[in-house]
Write a structure and sequence with these properties.
Blueprint: E1 8-14, H1 24-36, E2 41-46, H2 54-63, E3 68-73, H3 80-96, E4 101-104, H4 112-127
Parallel strand pairs: 1-2, 1-3, 3-4
Length: 129
């Protein structure tokens, strides 16, 4: 049996900002994740103000043969962008790329382990005074 290997990609989805320096922590996060997942294309995409935007990045990935896309919203909470804008974008992706399986993870700040790590950091800030 000759099964075709599924090509996966992970997109860290952030808001975007006018200042290019704003993206630096997201790029460091991308590098950390990519180092731990060498067989997965890990990239950034933005809602607005920065490039690439999610639809353009997804199109690039599909052109590279990606068939499974996981989108991780790197947002602290489930505001309007995560609750309304992102689902609309994902619906458009699914229409534009019917062969692409798209999964959206919970917003990073909604995850218990992420909240624990941020809490640990905050408590550590007390000790450094």
């Amino acid at each position: 049996m000759n099964a075709e290997k599924t090509k996966q990609a992970l997109v860290l989805f952030a808001h975007g900002a006018r200042a290019a320096s704003w993206a630096a922590p997201f790029e460091r996060l991308r590098e950390l994740v990519a180092a731990r997942t060498p067989d997965v294309d890990v990239s950034l995409a933005f809602l607005e103000l920065m490039e690439p935007r999610l639809p353009e990045r997804a199109a690039q990935l599909v052109a590279q043969g990606v068939t499974q896309l996981t989108v991780v919203p790197v947002f602290l909470g489930q505001g309007g962008h995560v609750l309304r804008d992102l689902p609309l974008m994902v619906d458009e992706l699914r229409l534009a790329h019917p062969g692409l399986s798209v999964r959206v993870a919970e917003a990073a700040g909604e995850n218990a382990a992420v909240l624990q790590a941020i809490g640990d950091y905050c408590i550590g800030a007390l000790a450094s005074q």
